[in-house]
Amino acid sequence: xxxxxxxxxxxxxxxxxxxxxxxxxxxxxxxxxxxxxxxxxxxxxxxxxxxxxxxxxxxxxxxxxxxxxxxxxxxxxxxxxxxxxxxxxxxxxxxxxxxxxxxxxxxxxxxxxxxxxxxxxxxxxxxxxxxxxxxxxxxxxxxxxxxxxx
Length: 150
Description:
By secondary structure, the chain is an alpha+beta fold. It has one domain (4-148): HIT family, subunit A (2-Layer Sandwich). Helix content is 32%, strand content 16%. The protein has helices at 4-13, 59-80, 133-148; strands at 24-25, 29-33, 43-47, 84-88, 100-106. The protein has a five-stranded antiparallel beta sheet. The longest helix has 22 residues, at 59-80. The termini are far apart.
């Protein structure tokens, strides 16, 4: 099976990614907005090399991940007003076995039945329910601005 995450990385490397799919690039991690979410601000940190388990990260990749998680949580709090962020990593689907970490804004008014792992209901959005490209791009610009000020 082809790794769709690696295909998206190649698009970013070639300069062919929209803003929402190219929010930030660091030496080890890319930051993108989830392409299939109904929740504005659902970010994904994507390792820039193909690895399928967190235990296989280098010390440098792991250290950079910790710093990025904090910085992106600050940026999401400032841009979405979230109460906190959820941080989740599975890499279980055949199309996306590549290590990627979800950083999800948890709003203060999030309904109880969407809290915790149930937040993933927002990823089952239809095209009509999904966050528009304009909203994703606006958030990307604002997240970049906050991130660059840290």
